[in-house]
Amino acid sequence: MALCSVGRPLLLNTRNSLGCFFKQKQTFCSKANESQEEEIRKKLQLFPGGSIDLQKQESGIAVMTVNNPARMNAFSGSMMTELEERVCELENWTEGKGLIVRGAAGTFCSGSDLNAVRAISNPQDGMKMCMFMQKTLTRLLRLACYRLPLISVALVEGKALGGGAELTTACDFRLMTSDAVIQFVHKHMGLVPGWGGAARLVRIVGSQNALKLLAGVKKVDPDFGNEIGLADGILKVGEGDTLVNTERWLSQFTKGSAPVIRAVKKVVLSGRELALDEALTTERHAFGTVWGGPANLEALALKTKHK
Ligand SMILES: CCCC(=O)SCCNC(=O)CCNC(=O)[C@H](O)C(C)(C)COP(=O)(O)OP(=O)(O)OC[C@H]1O[C@@H](n2cnc3c(N)ncnc32)[C@H](O)[C@@H]1OP(=O)(O)O
């Protein structure tokens, strides 16, 4: 069995990918929760359409495409379960260094497929769907915290709405093309984010800005995104291939020693997610993994100067 194959005991996966330093409450570990997850997986598969495509390139950069252009790349139920499968593949991709998440046909993602939303509009099913997506997107964000030096970027072209906006926050970085818009439209749909997007947004832009974006349903264009720290860069439309430009941008973070990049991601994620004492312990351990390591010894031998 693959390390985290879909349908596996969920506790196993949580430990494998995060057990290094996240002392998480094991909320998905009971048999009851496992069968509940299996139940929601089956239910989600009743709403097919579109796909989540993953292209793992020799460069170590993977491109994951949300592909449902007839519905502006809205997430059907089957796409939610496919996303989980793709994340699982990435968790096991030993050559992985970087990940670009984008939408097909020049637009990012318009959130949940409203046809599926209508069909499962009772609170119980809504909660289960949201638990499923929260867990998958948390795994996406934490890719690399344990074994892989993998850094992710959302390439936002066109619109990222609702759950699509939430998906952007599950990446380490966001690049917006000059015509792109990120908008948490949930309030206009009588909702709040449920895929973990609010919790992540607060950590990215702070609670004041998050409140403005969620309560004011503010459209975030690239300049505003830059100002509040939601966008990490702007790609001008018409100036070269956006995917190639994104890959070039990402490579500044992915090049270099894999153990060092892995340690960097570990200290940053633990700093963001853990209490200070625990984060300091993690940082100490991460330091121990690189101190006197090959990259460190090489830099010392070269008498590296930082001019
Ligand atoms: C916890 C998660 C919460 C959520 O994500 S709730 C969902 C939030 N998203 C939305 O409400 C998006 C609603 N859609 C829109 O605002 C507009 O369609 C949008 C994305 C601005 C695009 O506008 P336009 O460029 O004018 O294109 P259009 O409206 O003709 O759309 C093209 C086709 O796509 C469809 N579509 C767009 N977003 C969808 C969605 N989320 N679920 C299901 N179908 C969706 C739309 O119905 C239209 O289909 P058709 O051509 O009429 O058959």
Automatic annotation (TrEMBL):
Q: Which organism is it from?
A: Hemibagrus guttatus
What the entry lists under Pfam families is as follows: ECH_1
Reaction(s) catalysed by this chain's protein: (2R)-ethylmalonyl-CoA + H(+) = butanoyl-CoA + CO2; (2S)-ethylmalonyl-CoA + H(+) = butanoyl-CoA + CO2; (S)-methylmalonyl-CoA + H(+) = propanoyl-CoA + CO2
Query: What compartments host this protein?
Result: Cytoplasm, Cytosol
Q: Which GO terms describe its biological process?
A: fatty acid beta-oxidation
Please classify the protein's predominant subcellular localization into one broad category.
Answer: cytoplasm
> GO CC terms for this protein?
cytosol
**MF GO annotations:** methyl/ethyl malonyl-CoA decarboxylase activity
Q: What is its EC number?
A: 4.1.1.94
User: Function of this protein?
Assistant: Decarboxylates ethylmalonyl-CoA, a potentially toxic metabolite, to form butyryl-CoA, suggesting it might be involved in metabolite proofreading. Acts preferentially on (S)-ethylmalonyl-CoA but also has some activity on the (R)-isomer. Also has methylmalonyl-CoA decarboxylase activity at lower level.
Organism domain of life: Eukaryota
Query: Which key words are in the record?
Result: Cytoplasm, Lyase
Q: Which InterPro entries match?
A: ClpP/crotonase-like_dom_sf, Enoyl-CoA_hyd/isom_CS, Enoyl-CoA_hydra/iso
The family classification in the record reads: Belongs to the enoyl-CoA hydratase/isomerase family.
What the entry lists under PROSITE patterns is as follows: ENOYL_COA_HYDRATASE
The molecule here is called Ethylmalonyl-CoA decarboxylase
